[in-house]
Amino acid sequence: MHSFVLVVHIILAVLMIALILVQHGKGADAGASFGGGGAATVFGASGSGNFLTRLTAVLTALFFVTSLTLAVFAKKQTTEAYSLKTVQTTAPTQTTSPETSPNAPKTGQ
To answer: CB–CB of 63/9 below 8 Å?
Structure first.
């Protein structure tokens, strides 16, 4: 699940970069008065601004959700790494006999 969210996050980032670079700025409207209104024929009378702005907003919201999801995964992974659950809780088995134990009294002394 972590890998899937990471892949979606990277794809969204690349798409957002491409969309933001394709959009024209506020000063680009002056060029349309000199015959540069080619975008209006593809996206309708309002031009590409409204469509690309909404698409960028949707991709930004999805990017935000994947960012939060990856942060939750990272927190969970860090918590598990530093928790006491990783410590072995089983008692060691006794492999030495009581006679050869270092704490047992020696026979013949």
So the answer is: yes
For the stretch 9-22, pLDDT in tens is: 999 999 999 999 98
Give the span between the Cα atoms of 2 and 4, in whole angstroms: 6
Pairwise CA distance, residues 86 & 31, whole Å: 64
Q: How far apart are CA 62 and CA 89, in angstroms?
A: 42
**pTM more than 0.85:** no
- Residue 58: strand, helix, or coil: helix
Which residues have CB under 8 Å from 14's CB, separation 6+?
Answer: none
Closest CA to 13 of 59, 58, 55, 51: 59
